[in-house]
Amino acid sequence: MDSSTNSGYSTPGKPFTRDTNYINDRIVADPEAHRVADHYEYNTIGTLTTGLTQGAEAWPVEAGRYHLVAARACPWANRTIIVRRLLGLEDAISLGTPGPTHDANSWTFDLDPNGVDPVLGTQRLQQNYFTRFPEYPRGITVPAMVDIPTGGVVTNDYPQITLDFSTEWTAFHRDGAPNLLPEEHLDEMFDVIKRIFTEVNNGVYRAGFAGSQEAYDDAFDRLFTALDWLEERLTTRRYLMGEHITEADVRLFTTLVRFDPAYHGHFKCNRHKLIEFPALWAYARDLFQTPGFGDTVDFQQIKDHYYIVHRDINPTGIVPKGPVLTQWLSRHGREDLGGSPFGDGSAPGPVREGEGVDPAHNPLYAGRG
């Protein structure tokens, strides 16, 4: 959940603390079954229960009603683009992609003709937040699910959005859609997801936005302790939970794919590059070359976002030219561990027209432009 309203991301003398106050409404298949729970404790990785937080609403699943606004630059938003594609929800949920270099007020639709989202008719995502909450007090974040008829944001609760794509939108899943939430692995998977969020997904931000040496050192050590754990785990299994992709792999991938282009240098996460972890690097390439993962990635937008927007830690706004992208296409050899990405399912079809990435920004698209 990357925010557009902070002029500074690092507070001198203090550790980085992520704002986890989201719009907790949910889009569900049966709104009547979802009620405010008596003792619902919100968490940062989402829930598979039917509980709602106090004050939250349940909206009905309807094909064509909602617009997913998800900047390719943002790792939290990238998750939703991946899961939408893996499950085949393109016909049910339209996609809007703001550009990577938002200003202090809002993500903007500057990549669209005339700078206007063609579905919502707005120039700034802020307009859609203010349509529903005229005095919305927090950051204008992506991803966001917008109600097309009213133009108002329904939810920006990014960890919940992907879970609900899997569990609430099943009527619109494609034939052969993978089961990203296998029941036999759920307990362990959520333990893994929680550690990945705390130490890796958010860990790179805790290092990059640390306001003191002590806070940075702590975040750095915790991050690489977790990466060492993942390296060991992935040495003997193809995917985080075994033989097939799950929600856990989606959540780890969006951090790994940004590690060398952004986090290693920009966030000072520089004990090792991703390419120096044999298992993690091969695992990341395996996912990148799997339809639905790598074809959602725009490396240039990733670099532009971090190096241009975060001026408090990169005052010049200079964007690095590297790293070399073709290395993502090198053989990974993970097939030797067995398993298959989609299990009994199948890969998604070609990327929809208008949803592809600039061939100069992703080696998977080379020769297509």
From TrEMBL:
GO CC, one annotated term: cytoplasm
Region (Disordered): 335-369
Domain of life: Bacteria
Annotated GST C-terminal domain residues: 179-306
Pfam families: GST_C_2, GST_N_2
Protein name per its UniProtKB record: Glutathione S-transferase C-terminal domain-containing protein
CDD domains, A to Z: GST_C_Omega_like
PANTHER family (UniProt xref): GLUTATHIONE S-TRANSFERASE OMEGA-LIKE 1-RELATED, GLUTATHIONYL-HYDROQUINONE REDUCTASE
Source lineage: Bacteria, Bacillati, Actinomycetota, Actinomycetes, Micrococcales
Gene Ontology molecular function terms on file: glutathione transferase activity
UniProt organism field: Enteractinococcus helveticum
